[in-house]
Amino acid sequence: MARTNHSYSTEVGKVIFGSLTAGTDLIEGILAECKKQQIHSGMVTCIGSLKEVGYVLFKTENNYPTGYGNQIMIKNPVELMNCTGFICEDENGQLDLHLHGLVTEEDGKISGGHFLKGLNPTLITIEFTIICGNEIKAMREYDEELTFKVINFNK
To answer: Which of 27, 29, 57, 144 has the fewest Cβ atoms surrounding its Cβ within 10 A?
Structure first.
């Protein structure tokens, strides 16, 4: 099935504000709060600090993305300058979070990419906002044509 541009609106808006404590993994913590608040679709934005960072970037062949590259780790504390993502379900119907962000190290070096679950423990705190979209079904699934998992939205 060919992908097409698509969008859906929601009339009812629910916004969650929260924070994660030291030691809580960024993705696992936000997903736990989503489950607690009964959120299965939405958008996340957050800032804060991380003890270390684990992420990936896409790799290319002939200037075309072919998948994700090797895991990248920053093994020292960073400031999470900007992080945003989508709450969705994976192919198995499990709650998922597709999260990208930018971090800066103590010397000012900026890095970023696609964050990996279980590799991003909070240092001091993470403050987050979730814009709920429970009226919208967000499903993250592998697209063979694009060779990536993508999120499809339906009402």
So the answer is: 144
Domains annotated for the chain, with CATH where assigned, are 15-154 (3.30.1330.80)
Distance CA 18, CA 71 (A): 28
Alpha helices in 38-98 (DSSP H): none
Q: Which amino acid is present at 125?
A: T
pLDDT score of 58: 87
Sequence-distant (≥ 6) Cβ neighbours of residue 153 within 8 angstroms: 6, 7, 8, 136, 137, 138
Q: Are 88 and 138 in contact (CB under 8 A)?
A: yes
User: Using CA atoms, how far apart are residues 63 and 7, in angstroms rounded to an integer?
Assistant: 28
| The pairing of beta strand 53-56 with beta strand 110-115 | antiparallel
